[in-house]
Amino acid sequence: MTNDHDWEARVTALWERLDEHEPADFRARVAELAAERSSDDAAAVFELGAAHDSTGMPEEAVVHYRRALDLGLTGLRRRRAVIQLASSLRNLGRPDLGVELLTAERALPAEQLDADEQALSGAVDAFLALALADTGRDREAASLALGALAPLLPRYNRSLAYYAKDLLKTPFGS
């Protein structure tokens, strides 16, 4: 068994070279790394899910993400797992489940999240906007996406943030 730092470094290095591998080869390499850990290691199970997800196998990814979360995945990987699970479910035709997951994730108090987890708040909003659009809730999706974009603009931040909220009040076509 290798130490955590070494294992994490090798996982990171492999992900940095994702595009250099054929999908099946990449999944096999991640599986080799995961096999170095116990079968109930949530981080290793998450990495298996992410490998399947990133190589076009969302059904398998969902199984791994759910298992990693059930095993008690924590921290940044937990937040990533929720985002990626919701995205995979959306891609599999279940955007409603993605909306549920990401709405709950978005509701977590900031003080419960570390800085790295908070840095993914925009990703939570972006993937929630996609799932909302797929469920026919276009105005909510646009509001959420514009609200996430507003702080990033060099100007018009306040106006855009106001209009994003206003989308939820103003009936379409008014």
The percent range for strand residues is under 5%
Radius of gyration: 18 Å
**How many strand units?**
0
Helix content: 55-70%
Could you characterize what this model shows?
There is one protein chain. This protein has 174 residues and is mostly helical. It is built from 10 helices and no strands. The mean pLDDT is 94.
Summarize the structure.
This protein is mostly helical and 174 residues long.
List keywords for this structure.
174 residues; 10 helices
Topology:
Blueprint: H1 4-16, H2 23-35, H3 42-54, H4 58-70, H5 75-91, H6 95-106, H7 115-118, H8 121-134, H9 138-149, H10 157-166
